[in-house]
Write a structure and sequence with these properties.
heterodimer, A: mainly alpha, 9 helices, about 0% strand, globular, B: alpha+beta, OB fold (Dihydrolipoamide Acetyltransferase, E2P), 5-stranded mixed barrel, extended
Amino acid sequence: MWSFFHKLGSPPWLYGISGSILRWLLPLTLLALVTGLVWGLLFTAPDFRQGNSYRIIYIHVPAAVVALAGYYVMAIAGAINLIWKMKMADVAMKAAAPIGAALTFIALLTGAIWGKPTWGTWWVWDARITSMLILLFLYLGVVALYEAYDNKEAAGKACAVLSLVGTVNIPIIYKSVDWWYSLHQPASIKFTGESSIDPSMLYPLLLMITAFYALFTCCLLMNMRAELLQREARTNWVRKLALAGGRG
Amino acid sequence: MHPVRKQRLILVLFVVLFSSAAIGLVVYALRGNINLFFPPAEVAAGKAPVGQPIRVGGMVVDGSVQRSSDSLAVRFEITDFEASVPVIYEGILPDLFDEGQGAVASGVLDASGVLQATEVLAKHDENYMPPEVADALEKSGYDHKGNAK
């Protein structure tokens, strides 16, 4: 048990294991993304009121769900770095921020594109949309704050505190449509009780959500590997790796 | 656990709990302002300001939509099944605007209690289904929310 945690703190071991995970996870992710998109966009029935425009759900919902989950990954990695001074947790936190920002941006953009034909407006300052915009600023804030420091240890600490304070936004985003009157509709997928989305539309959506989780994991591992190589550029294991032609 | 790490763990938990409590209080204090619109019941109770831009949201009353024959003017009522607010609007309505569906109108409430709207948005609900399923539900006497008619 403990030896696993000690290994997790070792850059060459993490670089190696993430490489072998990516070798099978990356093709599997791409397969799931393509299958989910083709299924959702071409082989499901149109919605009885929205017609074909509802199909943006297959990008919008997975991006938003993983953007929220990714924030917890970033904040928990930040907390582990603060408490146990684990360098690899700092690498994970820094790697998660730009991916989360991209996913949040995709969710906001697809929401605006769907909102124009459905609601009649691109943007409205309701609780769900505004709190999602705050999430984008939190992610971008972590990216910017990290770069603002020359001392990487101080940068890691400051970003970890910012991420931890920002976690309060996640339940607010999730519950905003239930707590306040908003234009955004409540959740269609319910953990308890029957979902208010037809099963024929739900299954490709669940596949897309799984695929986006896998995509987040792949991007996180790839970002972490790039960051590891940069940080450890002067060490023996990276030199050996470079001499071997990058196969590790 | 090492005492120094335990201390840092407590500090981290404190930061999370303290900021959650602080932001929770702010959100609680602003709860009225975070709502995007007033429900018609609050308008009827006189809680919505008259002569100031507000939004009113709810369901468009069945059979209440009256269109003008020579302009884009339209008149309808928005209800939350407790009270209803008449709305006057001139302009293009969103495609999904319909009787018995959700809508949010923004405008100014005049002295007679009519909302002079400058913008009407359609509010979509959380139900997604293929047209055949909706037809089947309709035939069996249920609406799209699964409630008996």
